[in-house]
Amino acid sequence: MSRLPLRVRLVAGFVAAMLVLLTAAGAFVYWRVEYALDRGLDTELDQATAVITPLVDASGQVSLPEAANATGAGWQVLDETGAVLDSGGTAPAAALVTSSDLDRAGSGALTRDIGKLLPIADKPYRVQVTALATPGHFLVVGVRRDHRDEALRELLLQLALAGAGALAVAAIVGDVLARAALRPVERYRRRAAEIAGGADGLRLDVPPDRDDEVTRLGHTLNDMLAALERSLEQERRFVNDASHELRTPLTLLKSRIQLALRRSRTVAEHEAVLGELAVDVDRLTHLASQLLALGEASGAGTADVDVDQLVRAVVADRMHVHQDDADQLTVDLPEASAHAAIDPHALARILTNLIDNAGAHGAPPVHLRVRTAAADDSSYTVIEVTDAGPGMTPELMDRATERFSRSAEARARPGAGLGLSIVEELTRRAYGQLRLCCGDRHSSHGDPHPAIACDHTAAMTATVILPQPG
Which of 116, 127, 138, 368 sees the fewest Cβ atoms within 10 Å? Predict the structure, then answer.
């Protein structure tokens, strides 16, 4: 069945369900008709038995055969061995029942059918065996079942024909319904094949005036196609930008090596060339580490982090490495410890990138502030990094988190334009939000959050809003 087309399986299932239903309904109708017909025959048997029983004497003979025959039933008087003592009516000369039937009758009455409905019996009877007052004597009264059996056979034929017709209609209707239900799916498949073949910008044809499971599937697939196109476009742009950014240091590195190989040089000249090459290699290493960090951002998890403690650790490490700039970074922490639901390594990279970005593209002093805020019954930890630099233009602020996005002035400074991209990606993975504010201009990136006021209007500030655990 699993290898058959879905339409065939649906129709087969529908027909099978109808077959079970029709069989059950037919069996119920047949049972009720058979019960009604048998009840009529049993009434005749009871009446005949009531008339004949008083007429049987102790010897097993019927005193008034005419009265017994007037009942219209066949009758026999048998002894305990099954021998016929007297008979009349439509009953044959041979005993209608066996000695085992007499034993089953005992001192009461037994009703049974003689002869099968199918195949058709020559002389079908319905008999009633009654023990008489004389020990060892039994009265057997029987009526022919010809009309009853004919009626049941006709009913079986009609039920079979009606069931076959109903199944044929059910199969046709099921096929029509299955084709109609699966037609949009086949249309989706053909369109998906076109998209897989390389067609761009195509979408599934979803009827706008319908709202069922198939149309909802179409809308979901269209949303998925749109998301895939956006993802592919972002990856294509990332590859193009990365190629562009890598081309310049690689070209410089190759040119310096070629120039160094053109003539013999002294040790001092070789050391100077190696120093220049080291600068280019450092630039490539820094760019590669940022690209790797951006790739690892998609796997950032969440945890309960003590933000105050992590800030102190990050600032201490930075002070140890950049001792000359120790007085250019100030930190403002809340009195109560602030926590955030984010991976500690991700938060450390966010802090490092924001401080480095402020130091490279802003102006000292750089101020790092941690505070807590509440909105809509939820608590948040807010991290702000402010510098005294000129800030960003409105156009750059809106696209500052795009990969390799830099202003014309920043291209002359170290960096590849990936710092804020990494911050935005890590913040978004933690269900947080990155805000860039310069004067009265604000730009939000990441998950939407309740309005948490920005209490800075003059300096360039990068704000990270993270939800607290729980």
Answer: 116
Residue type, 105: A
- To the question of pTM greater than 0.70 for the whole model, the response is no
Can you tell me the distance from the alpha carbon of 147 to that of 185, in angstroms, rounded to the nearest whole number?
56
Q: Is the peptide bond before 65 cis (omega within 30 degrees of 0)?
A: no
| Residues contacting 427, CB < 8 A, separation 6+ | 350, 433, 434, 445, 446, 464, 466
**214-241 per-position pLDDT tens digit:** 888 888 888 888 888 887 877 776 666 5
Cβ-based neighbour number of residue 51 at 10 Å: 17
Say how far apart CA 257 and CA 277 lie, in whole Å: 8
Strand partners, 380: 373, 467
Q: What is the pLDDT of residues 326-347, one digit of tens each?
A: 678 889 898 888 999 888 888 8
CA 181 to chain centre: 19
Residue 139: beta bridge partners? 77, 130
Domains, the chain: 6-151 (3.30.450), 213-294 (1.10.287), 300-467 (3.30.565.10)
150: three-class secondary structure by DSSP: helix
